Amino acid sequence: MDDRTQTEIEAAAFRGLVAHLRERTDVQNIDLMNLAGFCRNCLAKWYRAAAAERGVELSDPEAREIIYGMPFPEWKAQYQAEASAEQMQRFDETKPLHAKISGHL
C-alpha cells in the first residue's frame, strides 16, 4: 500500500470513529476513559496536536467542536451526566493506562 492510500484509509477510519462517537451521546467520556483510556476530549487534543505539528493553530474549543460536532459546553449540557463515586474511583485507578497526549499533562 502506498503512503497516500494509507493516509486516506486512516483518515476515513478516524472520520468513522468521530461519527460513531457523535451518534453515541449515551456513552459518557468517563466510561470511555475507564474502559479504553481515552475519550472524546483526548481525540480533540490529539487532533489539535496533529494540527500544530503541521503549523495549523487550533484552540481547545475549536478542536473539541470538530470532535463533538457542536460546542463542547452545548454537548456537556445536553448529554453529560454527573460521574458517580464508583466511576471516579475507577478513573483514578486506571490513570496509569490513560492515553499519552503530546503537549498535555
Structure description:
The protein has helices at 3-23, 29-36, 40-53, 60-68, 72-79, 85-94. By secondary structure, it is mainly α. The chain has a single domain (3-97), classed as SMc04008-like (SMc04008-like fold, Orthogonal Bundle), CATH 1.10.3340. Helix 2 packs parallel to helix 6 (85-94) and helix 3 crosses helix 4. The longest helix is centred in the N-terminal third of the chain and has 21 residues, at 3-23. The mean pLDDT is 94.
Summary tags:
SMc04008-like fold, 105 residues, 0% strand, mainly alpha, 6 helices, globular
Quick structural overview:
With 105 residues, this protein is mainly α. The protein has six helices and no strands.
Uncertain spans: none
* End-to-end separation: 35 Å
Total domain modules: 1
CATH superfamily descriptor: SMc04008-like
Instruction: Provide the structure class.
Output: mainly alpha
CATH architectural grouping: Orthogonal Bundle
The ordered string of helix (H) and strand (E) elements is: HHHHHH
Strand content: under 5%
Tell me the major beta sheet: none
Q: What is the CATH C level class, in words?
A: Mainly Alpha
The Cα radius of gyration reads 15 Å
Helix content: 55-70%
CATH topology: SMc04008-like fold
Quick one: overall form? Answer: globular
Total DSSP helices: 6
Write the layout of secondary structure elements.
Blueprint: H1 3-23, H2 29-36, H3 40-53, H4 60-68, H5 72-79, H6 85-94
